[in-house]
Protein 1
Amino acid sequence: MRKPPLSGIDATAFRNKYRFEARLSGEGGQGVVMGGAILAEAAILHEGRFAVQSPTYGSRVRGGPTKVDVIISNKEIVYPRATDIDFFLCLAQMSFDKYGTDLAGDAIVLVDANLVPRVPSNRHLVYRVPFVEIAKGEMGNVVLSNIIALSVMATLTGIVTHDALWRAIEARVPQKYLELNRRAMELGLDLAARLGEKS
Amino acid sequence: MAKAAIDAGCRFYAGYPITPSSEIAADMSHLLPRVGGVFIQMEDEIASMGAVIGASLAGLKAMTATSGPGFSLKLENIGFACMAEVPCVIVNVMRGGPSTGLPTLPSQGDVMQARWGTHGDHSIIALAPSNLTETYWETVRAFNLAEEYRAPVILLLDEILGHMSERVELPDPSELEIFNRVAPQVPPEAYLPYATSGSHVPPMANFFTGYRYHVTGLTHDLTGFPTEDPEITEALMRRLDAKITDNLNGIIKYEETHLEDADIAIVAYGSVARSARVAVEQAREEGMKVGVFRPVTLWPFPGKQVAHLASHVKGLLVPEMNLGQIVGEVERVAGSTPVVPLNQANGQPIPPSGILTALRYMERK
Amino acid sequence: MPNPELLLASKHSEPMASGHSLCAGCAAGVIVRQVIMSVEDPVVVANATGCLEVCTGVYPVTSWNVSWIHNAFANVAATLSGVESAYRALRKRGEIPAREIKFVAFGGDGGTYDIGLQSLSGVMERGHDLVYVCYDNGAYMNTGVQRSSATPLGANTSTSPAGNLTSGKAELRKDMTAIAEAHGIPYVAQSSPGYYMDLMHKARRAFQTKGPAFLNVLSPCPLGWASEPTDSLVLARLAVDTCMWPLFEIAKGQFSLTYLPLEKKPVVEWLKLQGRFRHLFQSDHQNLIDQIQSGVDQNWQKILERAGSAVPSFAGPADSDRWGY
């Protein structure tokens, strides 16, 4: 898979960080927790590193704010929750309001442009991408928005290689949807390349 | 955990859906048929515990998993398992309580209930792993202990451990040391189901193997039939207690980190111990001499070890995701060493920073 | 912070306001609304643990404009019976104004067929004056689609999986309506939100009955049934038209069939719209489909025999004379 050049973010710094902390959040049903699992599996099973994935659910099986903390490191990870988040992905405003805490000073924030209209922080690097709209429009299925977002995240941070990410996705997706997911991942790659600076 | 159970020889699961333990039931429903085991989703929690007891008497290693409200419902039957000496494993993935509480958030609020929840005098074994690799090993150990001591064993997790995933290194199942209940050495005519020789644990005849005996929750004599005779009753109660309390060496397990030169020791278990470890690293960088004593076996509580520890440190910090349950056990053996509880019962984990702040406060005193 | 539209909707006089978080396509919300709309007196609602309870009452908002109790999973009937008994005692003593209040319990199939069966049985045996409505979606949906004793034969759930070794639920459904009838209570009925007039008429009768009344209402669930949210009421009607879920009532021991399909459809028409039965149409599961069909046929035959000559001459309960209103 080709790797587009990254803009203004030091990818190796994230990979070598003692504890890389990511929080993926959204509404129950958007695939956020699965996204966290894929990320962790990419790091553990396909890169041989350490990762912990710690989801927090609401009491409803569908809907309600949901998040998953993913910690990735080259060493054993002791505390399983994020306290100083390097990367925050959010696909729903209610989740941003509830879980947009503990962000590091230089955290990167990636939100769905339509579903998270209010991002109060000025000091963080904020990227807005209409993931759900793109998934519906260009891929015909809103279910793929988490894969696209994951791909953008991986490209921006370099925290897992695209190869590892793809293999983690492949292991979880039924055969007949593989091509669709591959396209979603490529789409994420393109989107990341085109992203500008702070918005 | 499901894999650990299967590897340990578990071939029966009866349970009921309850957040955050339902994943264990779903996993077992997939894994058990593949090894010729039995999975039954029962009509409620009480029935699940009953079925587990029945299956164990019939000769299968049996388990169930639940959370706070379900654990409350199972208590009467857990007491039955204590009295009738039926090996079984009960997993409680603790969530916020009491009552419906915080169904999807963690707590350590059922720790005392694990010890004393069921009525009457009884000893109990409860284990509290603190990471997922240890969860595997402690699940295997739970089955071994249940078989060795013919007793119910409780595995205490919390929602953090129940829902998280992390890298684990698992052994080859063939490398595991598995313990099975001791079968009777005498023919059926001579068999006394509750007679012991040497150890406090009677050999157990499974159903369908030719032995016929009486199983009851009533106080009973060596034949299993009920009695109210004070001498026999006293002997039974003492033996059931001694079965566990005389065998602490084989049951108690704990981990000590950085305690050799510590002034302050943290006593923490389960997922809180992870926060404690991080806090200790940070405290050591600040020059504080602190360490962690982590009970893996919560019940019987490693009182002797904590007492010894207390005599060597200036203070003990006990952080818990409850309003103070294990801290009482620590206070009981701490002598004149001050014990400081750090309590939080709001469904949020105790972060390393919280423990660090408490340590700094203790350091100043 | 609840949004302004929600606040406005909650000021509406409906006992259960819109804006709750039940899934799109969930029939339970429809059922509750139809049932409570059928009674004019104030109601006290008790709700067993489950989808309805957790989607209508999570802080800081609630959908309920009426008194509402959520107790433990197993005891909604028992708890409500306590309320009802206290109400009667207080009224008798003249300590509360003499005003008619109705009591209704809502439970899913998990809280009714399984863990709640015992307390429901107690209520029916003691004869409390309350209505019990079961919204039967055929599994423990909110905890992740585990099977219940209401799950139909062959359905794929997370604890009755369909794979190489097992083909979904291996046991037949428990006939909860028959169990209620066996308690000899004055009103028992089976209904479906797809035929809302049937449901509302029956709800009205249930509330007017002195003593325990039991309504078993089929509740399609797009999540657990893996069906389209827009198909929920279609499925609610198809279940009746395939005779999977006959509509009838038993009032003071008198059986009445309240709906006769113009054309009895084959059960596959209902099965094929649900992903939880998808495995039946792959590989070799025809005998399981046949088993399901013959089960439906046998049950329907028994219903027809019971109805005898009093089979409705047309489809639908539109005739108000029948209902005596």
Protein 2
Amino acid sequence: MKLFIKNGHLIDPAASENTGMNVLIEDGKVAAWIKPNDDQPGDCEVFDAAGLLVAPGFIDMHVHLREPGQEHKETIASGCAAAVAGGWTSVCPMPNTHPVNDNAAITRYMIEQAERAGLANVFPIGAITKSSDGSELAEMGEMKAAGAVAVSDDGRPVPNAGIMRRAMQYARDFDLPVIDHCEDKSLSSGGVMHEGKISLLLGLKGMPALAEDIDAVRDIILAKETGSHIHIAHVSTKGAIEAVRRAKSEGINVTCEVTPHHFTLTDKIVEGYDTNTKMAPPLRGEEHLEAIIEGIKDGTIDAIATDHAPHHADEKALEYDRAPFGITGLETAIGLACNELVHKGVIDLVRLVELCSSNPAKIFNLTGRGTLAPGSIADVTIIDPELDWTYTNAESRSKSRNSPFDGWNFRGAAVTTIVGGKIVYKR
Amino acid sequence: MEKPFRRRDLLGIRGLTAAEITGILDTAETFSEISTREVKKVPALRGKTIINLFFESSTRTRTSFELAAKRLSADAVNISVSSSSLSKGETLLDTALNLDAMAPDCIVVRHGSAGVPHQLAKVSKAAIVNAGDGANEHPTQALLDAMTIREHKKHIDGLEIAIVGDILHSRVARSNIHLLTKMGAKVRVAGPGTLVPTDFAHLVENGLTVCPHIEDAIDGADVVMILRIQRERQDSAYFPTLREYSIHYGLTNERLDLAKKTPSSCTPAR
């Protein structure tokens, strides 16, 4: 089976390519690049990508697929359906499943469920500590052998610096990046939104920015000392971004990601008490949004990740204080990146591909992905950066409907998603 | 006469204009005399159904709402939900839609979580009146305080008003700050740094000062409002002991002497 993608605009930052190259796919791999005026190879299916961006498959470094354990919110199959509809060819689920993905059996199960669904690739993230309870290290080596690409205790960040230090020393032996959801809970516990003028105005308990800053700085100091790779999840504060910028300039092995909602919204949207504006880290104030945009522009921020966090409608139909944290994000990410970053001139399309594909592949050591160089795996995201469309929760492929972007208009969307040479989504 | 208040709901003071506030106070004054009559009833709300939906315990506020409804001839139903709706497996939305299906004209709601009246207003056909939501607002208490101030001082604009105590957790403080500054008063707040965040100064555009000491707030004030310590809303210690609090932040006679000659002191219910 051959697939020939022609007339498109190929952007492959890892191969320094930004041209009108045609791509020939054969047996799930990129067979060759063919110049626009060269002969079309015979005996192949042709995909006309005229006017479209052809990019190496987008990799979402941070999702919650809820399986095993909370299949009423999402399954690996429904999550992968939402992923490919949003242009993501690979997703990396966090370990906060029930039970926690802290061992090779669960890691393997997640990968097998993804294979059964046959849509997106799933690269699980294993737990740092058993049950993510912050005390004993989980079997990282075994999980890595089973297919885990990183370790994290995500929403239950390791509070004990001594254990975090040991985790980083140990993960280094297996070449596993350690991902931290930076939140010092002694400062933020009980909070439901960003602490600032708006939280005072609304009478909601705040989560101060410094809870993230302090943990990020701690992790950077530990990364410097251990020589391990620390990846800061969903960075949302000016202080944390400045700390990462400084650390990078000192040569410390630190990377970070940002979510589309954090580069789009501020805490102002919490007025009205819609529980689909509640997530952790919370939507921050204007100065933090500006710092995020600056970090995306200057390269401090390495990746865009959705932190797709589905919750059942009944769970979100509660008091703001009691509703769970998190929003869905797989299907709105490219639309938001185009609206807020590309069309506003913050970044160009090359940088977009870097943030969503080549950098995530590099950070998680996903060989053969994040590029379309001949020989690599044929995961392709095809984007129409000019397509006008409207997102509605009702049409979402996720099992859950908890997005604050219901009814938003976007310019720019994934129109076709190819995984392992197979077209798995077509708009 | 044109109706001064055209909104369906009363969710807070923050969204109201000074004219709307004055309109409510003027209307309320004409009704206050009813409570002094032999027959304490007028037909203003005859045929209307009001549900007093209290998720938090309350004596004064709930009784006030119930008596007000009865004296205006409305049919009032009181519901006290002591345990949370979730413990019965019901969401807030379920509860609201169920009550709304019984076609009340108005739901008066008190809840320990900020924003519940706003959430109900979005799904309910009935008018929603906020009787206190978490640490957000308590608009009717502020309106009552404003009536008291008008009674004693004849006007609100130009007054210097001190609010002291647990500002952080107080919905009464928020509603009063909005109301009094909208009406042209100057408000000073004071209390321990843990309970009066400095960001509070930016809560409203003008007219609000955060004072470092309680004495600064009271000095020369026309009205002093004391907020009680909201122990039930404090998840950890914001000051060492009540003893130390009363020494440094309590309203003593010496401190009250700093205020203007005939100060009014209100102690809001909650």
Protein 3
Amino acid sequence: MEHIDFSLVDWSRAQFALTAMYHWLFVPLTLGLSFIVAIMESLYVKTGNEEWKRITKFWMTLFGINFAIGVATGIILEFEFGTNWSNYSWFVGDIFGAPLAIEGIMAFFLESTFIAVMFFGWNKVSKKFHLLSSWLVAIGSNLSALWILVANGWMQFPAGMQFNPDTARNEMIDFWSVLFSPVAINKFLHTVTSGYVLSAIFVIGVSAWYLLKKKEINLAKRSMVVAATFGLISSIYLISTGDGSAKAVAKYQPMKLAAMEGLYYGSDHAPLIAVGALKNCEDTLQVHRQSFIFEVPIYGALSYLAFGNFDEFVPGIHDLVHGNPEHGIISYQEKIEKGKIAIDALAEYKTLKKIGDTQNAAIALKTFEDNFQYFGYGYYFGRDPHELIPPVRMSFYAFHIMVGLGTYFVLFFILILFFTLKKQVVDKKWLLRLAVWTIPLAYVASEAGWIVAEVGRQPWVIQDLLPSIAAVSQIDSSSVMITFFLFLAIFTTLLIAEIRIMLSQIKKGPESSPSKQ
Amino acid sequence: MKTLVNIFQFYKEGFQSMTIGKKLWLIIGIKLIVMFAILKLFFFRNFLSEHFNTSEQKSEYVIDQLTKVK
């Protein structure tokens, strides 16, 4: 920490971002398609119609391709924790242990066991047991995501733990506070629901391609009804969970909210920017009152989004950095000083304990505990507090892309459902082409959501407690650079493999139809 | 014993009847080998475990790192 190697911090961050974003290309389709397949199979079991079985098996194959290519890509993130982020790994160790262990057990027992029945069990186990297996795979996949997202939620809002100054580790004192923290719950629901929306769009897009090619008409139309219904319900729920996430961000990560909205100066009746283009305010690290080249504000909407009240004050970046006594906001400089006191007190505590001065060690420990909530700010002592502002433009545009596309998806599902139920979808070529092109947009929205969540909370690895500059290992940045490009090559190969196998399977289509259209 | 044989047969027949699944298992196999036998072994050693043997030593080191703010 004496000499911060920013190239090491930046490469480590870039590598983690690259791995996480590639990993997330595979995960959401697994989360949602597993449920869509289970719903289709339920229709087969309920109606006894063999066409539903054929449809189920087709989508199950695409699910299998995505699952196989994506499986274990997340483990690389854990490798990176131990190698590139050793201070962080040690600091959080005990908190992540339980959720990740449960995730491993659930993933192993539910997914690994029942996925075999799902793929190998046709005609070998009863219909009902097969259906149960499909549902358990879907539930298992989503429960796996729960534990990972609980761990991520803890990083956004550390709760249910106590820092042990003797071991430098956080220890879990309340498992339920970690599991049911408002940030974790909203994060889980919002994230998995975004996977459902993406999967519904995937099914609709592939079905639309069949309709454009005049192939598999029955499969395509039936799949569209299921996917559009599932997608519409999911997208409406997604808005609701997004609202919950925004309120949690407003409460626990106000700087992230300000960055998401490009809100440099806080106000009552704060506006939500429907559309806007930000000026480049970051290069100079100055805070400007006029931050937009143009904007379409909806006055009061941000106050409502954040606090459920159109008139509530929403702090801006300036208020958070420089403080706003009227609203009880202390400045970053004050937090930095308190953080530095906490860091110094921890060092002093260790020294005093070593020499056996228990009385003064207890005083140092008390000082440390009193200031621990600002611990991470201490690493910015003697530095410009503006360094604690996340990249505003990236957060702003990622948020607006996510929200804009999310709104479009609701309308998209309504249109698809309307024309499919009216039996006119086959004639709406423009809608079918739009459906095919909406598939990449779903991935853009999904990745944008993670950019908001992770870039918006910079520089924190653990909110307020550990910034990235303190979390990295003291390793050579060139080794991180090499593995960055190694991962880029591996993941790009996997992605190309997935796309090629998936496209080939889609072109090949399902097993021959019992009744040709 | 019969149950175990049935389970073995279930998997054996399942793997034998695979079409695209064989290609996918090959990809999974190559991926796991690359991840664990190459990346983990040569590029992603656990930094603290590589440098320190005991939890106490790791704690000492991390506290030292976390409190070196100038």
Protein 4
Amino acid sequence: MHELAKKSTAAPTPPPPSGPAVSPPIIRPADFEDYPAFREVFLLYFADPSANATLRSFGILLHEMVLDFWGHWPNHSEGLFPAELRAAVADLRHVQGALQEWTGAALPLESEYDRRLAEVGADVARRIGEQTDRLEAELDFFVGRAS
Amino acid sequence: MCLPHEAPPEAPPGTETRRVPPGRRPPRRPAPPAPPPPPPDDDEPPVSAAPSPEIDPDLWGDFAVFRETFLVYVSHARYNAALRVFGELLFEMVLEAWGHWPEQPEGYIRSHLRAAVADLRHLQGYLTTQGENPPEDEPYEAHLCRMAVRMSREVGGVAEQIERELGPWRGEVS
């Protein structure tokens, strides 16, 4: 074994979880600003409560700092409000894609119940796609990009 | 990029009145007046706003971390890109780490659908807020406001469809 390899330390053992897994929150739409930066489908992977809470706090801090500074940055060429709606379109497409993948054929579904859930998720993905198409068409029409 | 002791550059001239983005801020004392900014450097290229990407649903994993409704306010292209790269790093790292953490009590598909519902409810609230107070003197913006409100109701409807199917059980052991 190489000399340096003998001297290297073993990989650290991960610390024990700080508690039971954190489930996704129930977000009241009126409180959406309390969940500003990170997607819930990403935070789902931070199942450790301490890690999850830390990242949420960081997201809130980042959002506050961006709100304090955003006026110094360039304006969106089509105006802020259409840009905000385009951002919502992008987020809807993200959820659409995630649902399509989680409910797709590649996912192993072990029970009839899981298959039922997958059907519902797939239907929701389709409906989100249709709704988003309409908003996107409206935004594109305004800026003259309609085909 | 401005160093901490330098004043940030002014917004480009001739800009429209910007709608204040939604956000609650803690009360703070008024900041002292900023010193005048340095004259613009003619050799510096203009900085254009970073637009939101058009996300192909099949490539949703490439935009896994930050909400676009957050990144839209980071219109500085370089900083926007930096956050996206940081997000990629976080995503890679959490995929390595999450196996060491407890499993979701509801199981894989239920917990993932719950996360999707949470994101849909966020969008429902965001679109509702965007649709508030349509301007009387801007017909197109007013039209977009009404569209946002309609979208908000539709997004709420699909979130409810999943929630009804999932029911109230969240993995509690009786």
